[in-house]
Amino acid sequence: MTGMSMRLRGRSWLVTLLALIVLVAVNAVLQPNLFTGTVLKSNLTVFLPLVLVAIGQTYVVLAGDIDLSVGAVIALVNVVTVTVIAAIGNGVGAVLLGLLAGMLTGMACGLFNGFLVAVMRFQPIVTTFATGIIFSGLALRVLPTAGLPVPAPYWRTYAGSLLGLPVTLWIFLTALLLVALLSWRPFLTHLAAVGGSRTGAFQTGLPVARIRIQGYVLAGLFSAFASLCLTGETASGDPLMGRMLALSSISAVVLGGTALAGGSGSAFGSVLGALVLGMIGNVIFFAGLPFEYQTLVQGLITLAALAGGVLVAGRQRW
Amino acid sequence: MPPALRAQGITKRFDAVVALSDGALTVERGEIHALLGANGCGKSTLCKIIAGTVLRDGGSVQVDGVPLEPKRPADAEAAGIALFYQELSLVPQLTVAENIFLGHEPRTRAGFVDRRKLEDDAGRLLGPFQAVAGSGLDLHTPVARLAPDQRQIVEILKVLARRPRLIIFDEATAALDRRQVEFFFRMLRELKAQGIAMIFISHRLDEVFEICDRITVMRNGATVATYPAAETDVNRVVHAMVGAMAEHLHPPQVERPANEQPRLVVDRARGRRLRDVSLTLRPGEILGLGGLQGQGQSALLRGLFGADPLDSGRVNLDGAPLRLRKPADAVRHGIAYVSGDRGRDAALHGRSIFENIAAASFIRERRVLVWPGRLAERFRQAAAALNTKYAGLEAPIGSLSGGNQQKIFIARWLATRPAVLLLDDPTKGIDLAAKADFFDLVQRLAAEGASILFYSSEDAELLGLCNRILVFNGGAIAAELSGGTMTALHLTRAAYGDAA
Ligand SMILES: Nc1ncnc2c1ncn2[C@@H]1O[C@H](COP(=O)(O)OP(=O)(O)O)[C@@H](O)[C@H]1O
Ligand SMILES: [Mg+2]
User: Fold this and answer.
1) To test ligand 1's pocket by mutation, which of B17, B22, B41, B406 has the most ligand atoms within 8 angstroms of CB?
2) Best probe residue, ligand 1, of B10, B12, B13, B14 (max atoms within 8 Å of C-beta)
């Protein structure tokens, strides 16, 4: 967590944690075998992509920006990865190169966004909405229709186990470790400073544009991680992959107690937020409610979290 | 040995506003050097140029004889310069300790923030101040929760943490009380003994003569004189600040019946930054609020508008008591508010000019549904009265220049036909032509019977426009100027307190 700055108003993640516990309890009642290995593993597989995108989105939002293009980045990373693998061959080496290409693609997308927003000073919402369309267009150009299966070593590893634990769990834990490492770096305080007071950060001598760009690059990188996980699950290319994830990631960030205006929050909160959103889907499914309710309830909960944030912020006038 | 700082012939303009025409300042090692001048004369701009926050248009700066061309604040910092920002450079969400070391966090060998050292170091800096800092100034407290004087202390510590060799204190004592100031001065003397050069801007002339070695005076963007403090006195300095400025021409006084009921009466208003402010405002009067920045003028205006409600005190409008808990209360009673911080307070971003003008009318007239055609004619008249150039009422607000945006916000209130107009430093950063139109309009409104409370951070504007001026100091009214006493000299003296 961002250490000391976490202790201030970022308490709303406690509410989210409570909500998560309640949801897990309800889910356990509706689905008695919830705590068996297979069910937990399949749940994690479903939640992992959103968890990863939400982590990345946090770094952008903390700096007072937003990234609506993460969904399109996921699609672009997916098609680049499968295309590179198919072009090189089907060995393990090809898969590794494909993963690398995917990550570089994600970071390049983030760099592009960050450049437009922080250097050209375009408005973040409109800019990333537009770049999202560009990335989607590029994805369709690279792979016009779904297809192009990935070789077995890729999806088998993703679905498999390592040292007795599912690979997805290892990925989840690694992501948490990355979040922790990042949160101990001065960089995270600087991100929050840029989001909290851009003028103050500039006057203090922080390289404001560079910090904002780094936030976007991180968002691109974590979107790439999410995409590579989704690819392991679907085992093929899909230029329309990840469409819903941009808005869900923002919901998760808000639920996790990060202020949309920037300046305070944490990626751990966003992980909780992503898990809550996932669990809502589970509960609605097992309660036998129609699937459409899932988006409705997620929307209402996000609104409630936003309202809570406004109430908290309203009392703290600067 | 070359001086610690030598700045010469500094020029800077913001669009049409010339902030500096000939700024100059020389500070020796181990010297505390006062920089004085009336509001808006360019002191802060000169300091920001030295600190690399603002890029100069011309002139030269040397630090210890080495030319300095800062492109960004970090460049000046590398040359050993630190600036206490008048408006503070703190991040509200971060804690006191994080703010003090922002950008200079001590690191462990792995490159992580060394929290233990961060807090130890911050604690060591803060420790001596604790005795005078009041309660609640804790290393872990977010700055947003601190009182104004505590924030200033944090900004001071932040400056010191950088271990600079040239420190600029731009109104660093504005919110401090006497005990805090004494403590601060003891600290300055220690720094001076270490050979550190300091520039000290303050509105309290007694402080200046107490602590400073030399005094440089600026007027209208230019440096006019430098004196050794021991060889001059308050009177000389104040005269240099004001200059042989032509005594100003009073605006024509509108004849009003003597027994006319006052429009607005404020009785012992109190708030966070207000101490027992009482005033009477007549119909058609333009009443100026003068004094140094942040002495309660904005707090009063925002209080009367219900934006930051007053803690206590009575407000009567046309003889009837008012309760002002939120801006809508004020708007419904015909009280209008225009702030110079357009972006923050006024604009409906991304909306059309029409919507921006209409916003206030809706509240005043308790409208729920609107018929744009009918309102448009009224707004067109209001905007035309302002000489505003715009492509059409449907154009977005962002398409206008700053000055024209400001006029649109005035038009917003013209359309409501306000009884009282509160102007909170309304001309901040707008160009000269727009300013002239704006003042024209204010005078026209007054002639039509509107009562106007006008706070400006530029003395010349107050002297040129107001019938009377109330000079604020420390949240209270320190003096009232009218008729023959409405001169730059009296205004500056009253603003700088009894010492002058
Ligand atoms: N960023 C800015 N944009 C436009 N005008 C500015 C800006 N900063 C300062 N000014 C103008 O420059 C002049 C000098 O301001 P300042 O240096 O703050 O004066 P002082 O600190 O002596 O009160 C004023 O007329 C002010 O309105
Ligand atoms: Mg100033």
Assistant:
1) B17
2) B14
Going by pLDDT thresholds of 50, 70 and 90, the confidence category of residue B337 is confident
Domain check: are B383 and B481 in the same one?
yes
Burial of B422 (0-12, 13-18, 19+ CB in 10 A): buried
In a domain, B251, yes or no: no
Q: Between B308 and B227, name the one with better pLDDT.
A: B227
Pairing of strands B451-455, B286-291: parallel
Domain that holds residue B436: 264-499
Q: Which residues on B lie below 8 Å from A205 (Cβ)?
A: 72-74, 77, 103
Same domain, B42 and B92: yes
Residues lower than pLDDT 70 in chain A: 1-11, 308-318
pLDDT of residue A119: 95
Residue entry with tokens 């600026």: B218
Q: What are phi and psi of A190, to 5 degrees?
A: -65, -40
Domain count for chain B, please give it.
Answer: 2
CATH number at residue B197: 3.40.50.300
What span, in angstroms and rounded, lies between the C-alpha atoms of B416 and B413? 5
CB B269 within 8 A of CB B313: yes
Contact of B116 with chain A, judged by CB distance below 8 Å, is answered with no
Residue of A nearest to B147 (CA): A318
- pLDDT (0 to 100) of residue B175: 79
Read off the pLDDT of residues A76-89 as tens digits, 9 standing for 90 and up. Answer: 999 999 999 999 98
Interface touch A8/B77, C-beta < 8 Å: no
**pLDDT exceeds 70 at position B118:** yes
In sequence order, what are the residues at sequence separation of 6 or more whose Cβ sits closer than 8 angstroms to the Cβ of residue A212?
A: A63, A65, A114, A117, A118, A194
Residues B233 and B324 in one domain: no
Predicted confidence at residue A6, as pLDDT, reads 40
SS3 label, residue A189: helix
Chain A residues with CB inside 8 Å of B73's CB?
A: 202-205
**Closest-CA residue of chain A to B88:** A200
Whether B328 and B419 map to the same domain: the answer is yes
A104 forms bridges with which residues in the sheet? none
DSSP state of B142: B
Do residue B146 and residue B273 come from a single domain? no
Cα distance from A316 to chain B (closest Cα, Å)? Answer: 7
Cβ–Cβ below 8 Å for A196 and B93: yes
Q: Report DSSP state, residue B339.
A: E
Is the separation of the CB atoms in B143 and B91 below 8 Å?
yes
B141-194 pLDDT, tens per residue? 999 988 888 999 999 999 999 999 999 999 898 778 888 888 999 999 999 999
Nearest by CB to residue A189, choosing from B73, B89, B94, is B94
Residue corresponding to tokens 């000391």: A4
Pocket of ligand 1 (CB under 6 A): B 14, 17, 19, 37, 39-45, 428-429, 458
Interchain contact, A205 vs B83, CB within 8 Å: no
**Assigned token pair, B96:** 């006191």
pLDDT of the residue at B377: 65
Asked whether residue B248 is domain-assigned, the answer is no
Nearest by CB to A189, from B53, B73, B102: name it.
Answer: B102
The reported pTM is: 0.77
Question: For the segment A6-60, what is each residue's pLDDT rounded down to a tens digit?
Answer: 444 456 778 888 889 999 999 999 888 888 888 899 999 999 999 999 999 999 9
Residue B254 domain flag:
no
CB-count burial class (<10 Å; 0-12, 13-18, 19+) for A157:
middle
Establish if B253 belongs to a structural domain. Answer: no
Looking at 3.30.160, 1.10.246, 1.25.40, 1.10.3470, the CATH number of the domain A2-313 comes to: 1.10.3470
- Nearest Cβ partner for A8 among B83, B93, B112: B93
Residues B116 and B206 grouped into a single domain: yes
